[in-house]
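---------- Forwarded message ----------

FYI, see the Molybdenum cofactor guanylyltransferase record below. Original note from H. follows.
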Amino acid sequence: MIRCDTSALILAGGQGSRMGGIDKGLVRLVGKPLIEWVIEALRQQVGDVLISANRSVDQYATLGYPVLQDAMPGFPGPLAGVMAGLGGMTTDELLVVPCDVPLLPRDLVFRMRPLLTPQTDLVVAADPERIHPAIFLCRAQVKAALAAYLAQGGRSVRGWQATLNTVTCPFEDASAFSNLNNMADLERTEQQLRTR
């Protein structure tokens, strides 16, 4: 596959409240931090990788990619990280994914990109079970709309996407989008990987 002229932003800036407050991107799955699983899934698909993080910044920096911190104080949510990514991207498109989805499809960008037409602002991944608003591809031009939404106090990813011309991109394998919210999810995924 040929890499797309797309920047990838990995959201690792949350508080990890459902993981007991630990930095989720650095939690190990089969001996490797979750964020490294995500990077491996994406780096052959995109032109560059950015990391959104508000803690453990030095540790994330050792991975060799730019680490962006929220300009807004107080952990205002993932959209603050997206705003930082839109400011730090070097391409015309930004793929956004969370750091806790280690089994992302290796053709994620290639499937989503054709749906980002001149009439479309944003493409969201979906599987047969549900839509995944935290996994999306957007144009650089949505930055103004996001800034306005945040200035009005908006914090919901779904709410912001509803203000744009958004379409979904269907994927068949729901397990590829399993996010590891807690230690039980982590243990279940580790067992699946060890039996592959």
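H. also flagged this: The chain has one domain: 7-194.
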